[in-house]
Design the sequence.
């Protein structure tokens, strides 16, 4: 007999149990998995996770629910979940509405004040989800609640501060308007008396005395300009004025007539054709363009006739905050004036900021601050680009 014939194969009684053992080893323990999952839910402390039956009766309770709401499991099981809602929400049927929404739509999301066992309130963010059996019938609801009281209180505090700032700003605007308005009358008298003294032929004034009076008259003139600009700024700070359709072409043509004398003296021109209409505050849109065009005429290069080009049109741009293409109205005022260093592109829109002395160019430093305020009132932004000696371009981006 060969060696191979001496090897006896294992009996069926031995081999079959081995195969059975291997198969069982690969099968998950369903009950064990369910217990671990339930344990995980029970141990969560940052979220209140509870199960409701189809009528909203509480079926189970985790540590997070006890921590947030204050009830022990023995105290709350079998109670209706409306117990967590303030009386006014119970009276208007909010808990039942949320259950109904979850049943109809699969989920209900809500934020609002909730009541703990001790009667204190917390701001809860709630998600109620419908649970179904294999036939698609609703067998209950899961309810997950998170305590966002700290966030809510912070939001309320910010809102309170915002309202206080708005109130203070309104009071400051009223004060600035009243102060500027009240200063106009005594200033007018100073200018009148100065003028009368200078024009009186019978008075023998020395050259120094005349120089003093002329300086006083110049200071009074500058003060008059400052008061007028302050009054303009307080007016454009008021945002409750109604919007209406504004024809930009008509506004520029009106301003061309308004600046006719300056254009004639400098040989300048304003170029604007087929400008569209826009939705805005008419007198503010006019003041915006008046300030920008007036700025271009003021800061023109000596010996070079000023040329101001006004264009406008709807363009599609990428909004970096949303990542979507959006239509905007781009209004541009470009000139061939003295320009400025791009380093000052943001600074020029601040109150009382000037890049030149009063001896070089008159002004109060409020004009471009008014422009920025007007653009903000129209929910837009304004930007300036320039280089010394190469003119300036003002781009205004407005909702189309």
Sequence:
């Amino acid at each position: 007999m060969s060696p191979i014939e001496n090897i006896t194969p294992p009996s069926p009684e031995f081999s079959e149990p081995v195969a059975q053992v291997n198969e069982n080893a690969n099968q998950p323990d369903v009950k064990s998995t369910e217990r671990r999952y339930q344990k995980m839910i029970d141990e969560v402390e940052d979220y209140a996770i509870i199960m409701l039956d189809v009528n909203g009766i509480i079926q189970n309770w985790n540590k997070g629910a006890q921590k947030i709401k204050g009830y022990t499991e023995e105290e709350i099981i079998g109670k209706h979940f409306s117990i967590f809602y303030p009386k006014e929400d119970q009276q208007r049927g909010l808990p039942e509405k949320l259950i109904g929404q979850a049943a109809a739509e699969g989920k209900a999301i809500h934020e609002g004040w909730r009541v703990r066992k001790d009667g204190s309130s917390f701001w809860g963010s709630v998600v109620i989800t419908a649970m179904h059996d294999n036939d698609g019938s609703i067998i209950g609801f899961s309810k997950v609640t998170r305590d966002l009281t700290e966030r809510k209180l912070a939001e309320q505090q910010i809102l309170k501060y915002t309202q206080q700032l708005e109130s203070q700003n309104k009071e400051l605007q009223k004060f600035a308007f009243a102060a500027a308005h009240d200063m106009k009358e005594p200033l007018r008298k100073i200018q009148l008396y100065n003028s009368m003294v200078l024009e009186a032929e019978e008075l023998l004034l020395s050259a120094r005395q005349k120089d003093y009076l002329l300086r006083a008259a110049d200071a009074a003139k500058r003060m008059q300009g400052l008061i007028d600009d302050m009054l303009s700024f307080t007016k454009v700070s008021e945002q409750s004025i109604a919007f209406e359709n504004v024809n930009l072409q008509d506004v520029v043509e009106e301003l061309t007539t308004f600046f006719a004398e300056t254009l004639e003296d400098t040989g300048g021109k304003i170029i604007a054709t087929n400008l569209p209409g826009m939705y805005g505050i008419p007198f503010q849109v006019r003041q915006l363009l008046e300030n920008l065009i007036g700025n271009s005429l003021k800061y023109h290069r000596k010996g070079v006739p000023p040329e101001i080009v006004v264009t406008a049109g709807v363009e599609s741009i990428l909004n970096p905050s949303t990542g979507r293409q959006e239509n905007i109205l781009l209004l541009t005022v470009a000139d061939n004036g003295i320009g400025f260093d791009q380093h000052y592109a943001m600074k020029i829109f601040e109150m009382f900021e000037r890049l030149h002395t009063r001896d070089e160019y008159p002004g109060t430093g409020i004009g471009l601050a008014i422009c920025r305020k007007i653009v903000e009132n129209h929910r837009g932004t304004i930007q300036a680009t320039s280089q010394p000696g190469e003119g300036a371009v003002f781009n205004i981006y407005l909702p189309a």
About this structure: Confidence is low (pLDDT under 50) at residues 1-23. The CA atoms of residues 41 and 205 lie 97 Å apart. The chain is about 45% helix and 20% strand.
